[in-house]
Structure formats: structure tokens, C-alpha cells
Amino acid sequence: MKSALSLKGIIASLALGAFALQATAQVDEKIDVNKLPVEEAKLAYAPEVPPRIERRKPARVKVHLETKELKKRLADGVEYTFWTFGGTVPGPMIRIREGDYVDFTLANHPTSKMPHNIDLHAVTGQGGGAEGSFTAPGHSSTFSFRALKAGLYIYHCATAPVGMHIANGMYGMILVEPEKGLPKVDREFQVVQSEFYTKGKHGQKGLQPFDMDKAVKEQADYVVFNGSVGAMTGDNSIKAKVGETVRLFVGNGGPNLISSFHVIGEIFDNVYQDGGTKITQNNVQTTLVPAGGSSIVEFKLDTAANLILVDHSIFRAFNKGALGMLKVEGPHRPEIYTGKTVDAIYLPEGSAIQSMPQEAKAAPKAETFEQRMKAGKTVYTSSCAACHQVNGQGIPGAFPPLAKADFLMADRKRAIRTVVHGLEGKITVNGADYDGIMPALGLDNEDIANVLTYITNSWGNKGPMITPKEVQAERKK
Fold it and tell me: Which of 39, 89, 135, 457 is the most exposed place for a label (fewest CB within 10 A)?
């Protein structure tokens, strides 16, 4: 009886094996890799995205990527030895099509001190390609894979210790477009969040080595977009126009933290959660992007604005670097957003609130120095103290001090223009570097004259009284 059962089992196993082989053969028959058209993959470096794939049939795609260990800027005055794909952090974005057959070559630069490999989350197979790409310095490795599933995927180094290789910058994204492609939009950008763990505290100058203890405890010194503090602000801001539709490919290299991705001043029309190819939600404020995961968000730009990209775990944005800007050029549409139209005095004791529409009634005028100081303190408390603090001391690494501030006091006209028009980009205040964004506050000439008179004559500062006439002259510039 046992022999009979064993024989039946063997026959069943053989039949099952034959079915499996047949199924594999059917998959293989769908593609003859030797007859596919051959093309080189087009790679793009953040925040740019490779061009949309217009072909509707698979190809044999060649991807060449180099690993290299480089000393580069992490923040102003702070350097770090990054381990990179393609010489950048994040590594270049790869764009292929569902059904493509990919020949992937990984070269490890001879100057590297470590072996590297690549785990592409888009790969079905051992280690996502890590097993076939383990490469010593001065060598190259090639493996091939079939892109079976469309989606937006992270890739990263998976050489031990894996966390250290990722923490040093070895990650990027690969987009496998659906057979019919994604819907067309006007602009596409990539945003990859990650964190860094340094021996020195946030902002400490010089070359900073990796700190394994902080990494294990998940105590990040920097949380950034596209590899460094300020990589998406100032001159590096991304740009679009009113009326355009924007698609952001958002990745999270980790190695540890989940991102709460948000764009201040926008709502995501569509979210492809977890980097899939199906719209899973509409009208979304903030979407979670796990470490080693991704999301695709789309939104139409309805009015001119400077939209701020953040990780809404908010201290990461304003204190650790997870901050970017999308400058939307074009007409302001007051039917969507007006900006400030009323400046009201609030009297909590129950007295009437005096409402002063800015277009109809000017702010009370101050004539003397003492009057400007008193009025300026009121403006400062309501408009400035939240960032620069009550006594003008600022917040280290985030908001510069106004107390005894050399940058502020060195150029009176520049100080006026800063309050009138706002300021972004790198500045140095009392020997410390700041690279952030101060928006225009929408104050009228009288308020600006008053608040600057107060600031430039408080906390150790000593300057002349500033007048509305001076403010108007700088506003015209």
C-alpha cells in the first residue's frame, strides 16, 4: 500500500512539475529576448525624471550604473563621504516599461573601499538582483531580469551591513511604466527623502563620519529631500505654471523613518498609494511613504504661489532639512486665494473688534520714534516672534537671530526689502549659515517701518528710525 501511495505521489508530483514547466514555457514563449529591439535606458538625476516611454511593445533595455564613494556637501559647511549610485544621492531614476527585458550592469569604481550591489524592488528573483550584482572595487557585474509588474520602486544597495550602505546614500527609484503608460501630465519631478546619522550634531561643521549608534537608535541628525539640505530650495526649487498638472514621484530611501509627505498650499488630486499604478485616493492632504517605499501624487496648479514640500513630521522639515519648494508662476487668482485682506485689533476683554480692511483704511500712523517702537512691538509679536522668538534669539539651524544680528544691521535697505519681498537661500548671520525661506508677510508700509524700527533698536541693536517713505522706495525696486 505504501508503495502504491508513493507511486501515486510520484506521478502526481511529476504531473505537477510538468504543469509548472508548461506554465513557465508559456511565459517564455511570450518573449524572445534576442528579437527585441535594443535600447539604452535614459537615466535622470533628481529632481528631473526620465522622459515618458511612448512605445507600446517591450524592448531589451541596457542599464549601466556605477557605484562610487565621494566626499560631497550634506549641508552648508558640512561634508559627508557618500556612497553613491551614479555619483549622486539619490542615484539616477531609471524608467522602463512593463514587459521589458533588462540587462543591468553594475560597475564598482576602483577607488571604492567597499564592495557594493543593487537590490531593485522591481525585480522578481533572488535578492532583487543583489545576488547577481555583488561587485568588488574595480569590477563590474551583469545580470538580466524581466519587468513583470508595473509600479514605482525603490532600489538600494544590499551589501552587509545593509543599513550602513543605505544610510550612506545608496538608493534611488526605478519606474516600470504600465503597458499603456501613465496618464499624461505637464510636468514630472522626483523627490526622494532619506536621513543621515553623523558623529557631530546637526549643523556641526567639517567632514562628518557616519554614526552607527545613532542609526541603530533611529536618531537622525538630518532628514532631507534629494540628498542634502537645500537640494530643493532657492535656486534649486522646482518650477511650474498656473494651469499645469504636476506629478511627483516620491520615494523614501530611509533607512529608518516613515515620511508624512505634504505640500503646503496644495491638495493632491490623485494618489497612487505605495507606488502602485492604480489611483487609490483623491483629494489627499498628506500621504505616508514608508522606508523603502514610494508614492505617486498628482495635482493641478490653480493659482500662483510658492508651495512648500515637507515631511509633516514637522521638526524634520524646519529643523533637520526635509523641505523643498515648488514655485508656481503665473497669475494670482483672488477667487481662489486672496492673501491677507483684513488687519484687525482683537480685544479679548469683550470690547468691539476694530476691523480695518487694508484696501479701505490705512494702519494708524506713528510719527515719533517712541510711537514706532510701540507699534512695531505689536507687529513683531503677531508676525515675527513665532520664528525669531520673543527676544529675537532665533532658533539655531532653523531661524536666524535678530538680536545683535550682523546681517540685519549691515544693510538697512536690504533689511527693508527682506520684509517687503521675503527671502530665500543661503545667508550667514553672526557666523552661522542658514538656508531657508522667509515668506513675504503682506504688511503695509506703515507696519514694516514700525516693526523694523523696533527690531533694529531692540536686544542690543541700535539703528535709526525707519519711515514708510523708505519702505515704499524699496518696494518699488
Answer: 39
CA distance 256 to 290: 9
For residue 364, what pLDDT is reported? 59
Q: Could you report the per-residue pLDDT of 142-194, keeping only the tens digit for each?
A: 999 999 999 999 999 999 999 999 999 999 999 999 999 999 999 999 999 99
What's the pLDDT at 9?
Answer: 43
Residue of 328, 159, 141 whose CA lies nearest to 243? 328
Domain boundary among 127, 154, 177: 177
1 within a domain of the structure (yes/no): no
Alpha helices (runs of H) in 141-194, residue ranges in sequence order? 162-167
CB 163 within 8 A of CB 171: no
In a domain, 16, yes or no: no
Residue 334 within a domain: no
In angstroms, what CA-CA distances link 332 with 49, 186, 382?
28, 20, 25
How much is the CA Rg of the chain, to the nearest whole Å?
Answer: 28
Residues 316 and 427 in one domain: no
Tracing cell 477667487 back to the chain, one arrives at 335
DSSP E strands in 210-267: the ranges are 222-225, 238-241, 245-254, 259-264
